[in-house]
Amino acid sequence: MEIHAKKYLGQHFLKDRNIARKITESLLPVTREVVEVGAGTGVLTRYLLEMPELSVKAVEIDPEAIAYLHATFPGHREKILRGDFLEIDPGEYFPGPFSVIGNFPYNISSQIFFKILAHRKSIPQVVCMIQKEVAERVSAPSGNKRYGILSVFLQAHYTIEYLFTVPEQVFDPPPKVKSAVIRLTRNTREELGCDEKRFRAVVKSGFNQRRKTLRNSLKAILPEGFTSDKLTLRPEQLDVDDFIDLCNEIENTRR
Question: Which structural domains are found in the chain, ordered by start?
Answer without folding.
Answer: 5-186 (3.40.50.150), 196-254 (1.10.8.100)
